[in-house]
Amino acid sequence: MHVLILGADGYLGWPTAMYFSQKGWNVTAVDNYFRRNACTELDVGMLYPLPSLQERAQLWYELTGHEIKVIIGDIAEPEICRSLFTGTRPYNWAKDTSFTGLPEVIVHYAEQPSAPYSLLNYHYADVTVTNNLRVTNNLMFAVRDLCPTAHLVKLGTMGEYGTPNIDIEEGWIDIEHKGRKDTFLFPRQASSLYHTTKIMDTDLLWFGTRTWNLRVTDLMQGPVYGIDTYESEQNERLRTLFNYDEIFGTVINRFITQAIAGYPLTVYGKGGQQRGYINIKDTLQCVYKAAENPPDAGRLKIYNQIMETYSVNELAELTQKAARKAGYKVTINHIDNPRKEAEDHYYNPQHQGLLDLGVLPHYLTEESMLEMIRTVEKFRKNIRKDVIFRGIKW
């Protein structure tokens, strides 16, 4: 089986490439280094330096004998996107220029992934909308025209749903109105411009499934935490990137880094905001299980990709307890919420679908958090307090 992983240099992309490769799949990894370049441009810093995608693929091959082919290119450009399926290369492979053939599965991570980035100012808003929608649209047409039987697995976000005052179903909801019934996409109410583009992605791909019989799985993922995966434990240079800043760092990763740096944990507002969370190891399981179980042609299958829910206060308190066991004195600081969001709300998302496919969850505990603390503290000297919080507001 051949899988095409788009956004393969990212926080989730590189671990996914290794995961599929370890399972024996032929992997083609595509990226344009957007995330790295954005980190440099905005001077947000990373916890540790990263080898290039080509260097990581070479190291992976030396350690395992499994080859990950690498393409550096911007698939927001339609012809570059289409060339992934035709074999016409306007850029170089890492190892050779051979065409590995059409993929059975395409994993789509190739988007600007940050809500704060999308609302820095009008320029970054434009970058977000332009990149995210062009990539998804280009990919949809390329699959339709050149690889119509492929299974497209796209990473969505639980942020598409917002925080409705009803249970959040897995993508779809049955509606009865004036004596008639139908099934619709669950109502969306994004809390940022980034999340709004993800709603538009879902709508684009729903159009593609209805109109051209594409087969698509949309994974509504909650915030991810963690560093090491079973594959990266073979060599620390195989680790994924790790951000701890306000723009690209997810909340648990930020809290752990703040605790180690002696920086008060930044809880926005009252801290009652509830979300669904997932360990990075479980993201890999979920994407793989989804890839193994494609929907029928003409169907958009949606899973809620989380394992458990927490409030921000609960995460801060858990971080504090785990960090104290590691010898760190941690304080919690409630600051004015820079975001327009409900801080006290009902939140009950359903998330049984991926468990039914066989995903085995890694739950967040003091012990698992302590493991992450021990990893991050190895790079304590690299932590820059000046990039942790800048107060981006919307």
The helix-and-strand class reads: alpha/beta
CATH class placement = Alpha Beta
User: Taking Cα atoms only, what radius of gyration do you get, to the nearest Å?
Assistant: 20 Å
CATH architecture annotation name = 3-Layer(aba) Sandwich
- The general outline is globular
Unreliable sequence segments:
91-97
Largest sheet: 7 strands, parallel
Strand order of the largest sheet: 3-2-1-4-5-8-12
Nearest-integer average pLDDT: 95
List the helices and strands and how they pair.
Elements: E1 2-6, H1 13-22, E2 26-31, H2 34-42, H3 53-64, E3 68-72, H4 78-86, E4 105-108, H5 115-118, H6 122-146, E5 151-157, E6 172-177, E7 180-185, H7 193-212, E8 215-221, E9 224-225, H8 251-261, E10 265-268, E11 274-279, H9 280-292, E12 300-305, E13 308-311, H10 312-325, E14 332-335, H11 353-356, H12 366-376
Parallel strand pairs: 1-2, 1-4, 2-3, 4-5, 5-8, 8-12, 9-11, 10-14
Antiparallel strand pairs: 6-7, 11-13
Q: Overview of this structure, please?
A:
The protein is built from twelve helices and 14 strands. It has 394 residues and is of the alpha/beta class. It has a single domain (2-387), classed as Rossmann fold (3-Layer(aba) Sandwich). It has a seven-stranded parallel beta sheet with strand order 3-2-1-4-5-8-12, sandwiched between helices. A three-stranded mixed beta sheet has the order 9-11-13. It has a two-stranded antiparallel sheet with strand order 6-7. Helix 4 (78-86) packs parallel to helix 6 (122-146) and helix 10 (312-325) crosses helix 12 (366-376). It starts with a strand and ends in an 18-residue tail after the last helix. Residues 91-97 have low confidence and may be disordered.
